[in-house]
């Protein structure tokens, strides 16, 4: 699903082309061929890497394969990489990946599409302009449809997906880190598999997908964030609502789910909406943020995959023109943004990209800590570098 969304969006990027695709599934290969008829089709990663016709790699395989594939690619090539979230699913892979990235001379970008949704960009702009005053509280509500079916059902079990709070909620933990100008230090979560997939059996096993949860996250700067997840709520008008509160105002960003899921009988699909509610003078100011129709049709994520590819393409082009490490002056937007709010001893790993491997790992570690909190019923303290937690 996501691989095809990437192919469709890459085809909209001037100067980019899909040269080769590796996928072991023959039905998926046929779909890939229909989408990208000129691409070299391969069964394995080895076959893909055997030819010298690639400038950058994109990984959109099942979650549990990301770490192993990354470690293998990092050993064998110096190519820039865009890897789908979550960057890994096992805690033991976190440090292995940090060590491997340290040796890799090219950009590694983790796909965090939510950052690039037009309404989220506007929301971020409002916060940067100080609309709320000091940001004190941030809540992210996701009310959506159950997990879709995947090739070989890899998303039915935590051991393959990493668990719901890693699998999909790493997007939201990434947004919390992006929007709040300090780092997470503690998480308490409660959740369970209560309604979805309970009648399904895979070799006799019942899926263990958490379908509803709350997670509360404390930040070192005194801010607090909360995630509310419900995966039996596809009847909602908006799929996500992000709410920021500070002493001056409340700002809400409402984001619709995939347009293709909006019922035809209800008319036009809802448009993303930003609502700013100052305290003085009181009263909400609503702005709708339409997304280009062609971009909506190219994916399920409000056009964000396209905008992310534009930026990844620019990072790759810049890297080819001037390899990372040879430029000491060029700063990307992320290096000047709140994202690098720590004096981070590992920041060299950012390699000039907006969503670095470290960002991807920190979002996953926060998700793993939240899953651990659910399992133990205890709040979990995070390490100061955000790459580990008390277990
Ligand atoms: N960023 C987002 O918003 C977003 C949304 C959906 C999915 N994703 C991520 O994209 C990835 C793929 O998810 P999906 O929904 O497309 O799943 P999917 O099951 O639809 O697709 C996975 C594809 O990987 C192929 N595959 C399996 N083993 C492989 C291997 N060894 N080498 C190459 N390909 C292999 C499968 O045949 C299949 O075509 C996951 O990591 C998922 O978390 C991200």
Structure description:
The chain is α/β, with parallel strands linked by helices and 391 residues long. The protein folds into two domains: 2-112 and 306-357, 3-Layer(aba) Sandwich (Rossmann fold), CATH 3.40.50; 114-289, Dihydrodipicolinate Reductase, domain 2. Helix content is 32%, strand content 19%. It has 13 helices and 14 strands. The strands form three sheets. The chain has a nine-stranded mixed sheet with strand order 13-12-11-10-6-9-8-7-14. A three-stranded parallel sheet has the order 3-4-5, with helices on both faces. Strands 1-2 form a two-stranded parallel sheet. It starts with a helix and ends in a 10-residue tail after the last strand. Bound molecules: nicotinamide-adenine-dinucleotide (NAD). The site of nicotinamide-adenine-dinucleotide has 21 residues, from helix 1.
Notable traits:
2 domains, 14 strands, Dihydrodipicolinate Reductase, domain 2, alpha/beta, 19% strand, Rossmann fold, binds nicotinamide-adenine-dinucleotide, 391 residues
Give the secondary structure arrangement, pairings included.
Layout: H1 2-10, E1 20-22, H2 26-35, E2 40-42, H3 45-50, E3 57-59, H4 66-76, E4 81-84, H5 92-103, E5 108-111, H6 118-128, E6 137-143, H7 158-161, H8 164-167, H9 170-179, E7 184-192, E8 212-219, E9 224-230, E10 240-245, E11 249-255, E12 273-278, E13 285-288, H10 293-297, H11 304-321, H12 333-336, H13 357-376, E14 380-381
Helix pairs in contact: 4-5, 9-13
The structure holds nicotinamide-adenine-dinucleotide.
């Amino acid at each position: 699903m996501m691989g095809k969304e990437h192919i469709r969006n890459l085809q909209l990027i001037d100067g980019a082309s899909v040269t080769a695709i590796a996928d072991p599934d023959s039905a998926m290969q046929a779909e890939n061929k229909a989408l990208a008829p000129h691409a070299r089709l391969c069964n394995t990663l080895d076959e893909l890497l055997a030819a010298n016709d690639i400038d950058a790699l994109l990984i959109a395989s099942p979650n549990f394969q990301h770490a192993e594939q990354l470690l293998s690619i990092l050993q064998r090539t110096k190519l820039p990489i865009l890897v789908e979230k979550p960057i890994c699913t096992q805690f033991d892979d976190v440090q292995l990946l940090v060590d491997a990235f340290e040796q890799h001379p090219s950009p590694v970008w983790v796909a965090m599409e939510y950052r690039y949704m037009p309404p989220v960009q506007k929301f971020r702009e409002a916060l940067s302009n100080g609309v709320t005053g000091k940001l004190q509280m941030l809540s992210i509500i996701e009310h959506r449809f159950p997990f879709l079916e995947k090739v070989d059902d890899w998303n039915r079990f935590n051991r393959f997906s990493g668990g719901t709070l890693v699998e999909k909620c790493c997007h939201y933990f990434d947004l919390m880190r992006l929007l709040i100008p300090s780092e997470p230090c503690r998480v308490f979560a409660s959740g369970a598999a209560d309604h979805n997939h309970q009648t399904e059996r895979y070799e006799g096993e019942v899926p263990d997908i958490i379908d509803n949860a709350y997670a509360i996250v404390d930040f070192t700067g005194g801010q607090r964030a909360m995630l509310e997840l419900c995966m039996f709520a596809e009847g909602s008008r908006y799929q996500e609502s992000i709410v920021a509160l500070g002493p001056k105002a409340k700002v809400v960003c409402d984001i619709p789910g995939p347009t293709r899921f909006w019922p035809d009988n209800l008319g036009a699909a809802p448009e993303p909406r930003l609502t700013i509610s100052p305290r003085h003078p009181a009263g909400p100011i609503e702005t709708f943020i339409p997304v280009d129709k062609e971009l909506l049709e190219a994916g399920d994520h409000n056009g964000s995959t396209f905008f992310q590819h534009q930026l990844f393409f620019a990072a790759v082009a810049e890297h080819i023109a001037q390899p990372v490490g040879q430029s000491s002056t060029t700063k990307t937007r992320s290096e000047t943004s709140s994202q690098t709010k720590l004096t981070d001893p590992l920041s060299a790993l950012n390699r000039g990209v907006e969503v670095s491997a470290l960002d991807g790992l920190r979002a996953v570690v926060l998700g793993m800590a939240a899953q651990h909190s659910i399992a133990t019923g205890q709040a979990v303290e995070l390490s100061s570098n955000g790459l580990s937690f008390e277990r």
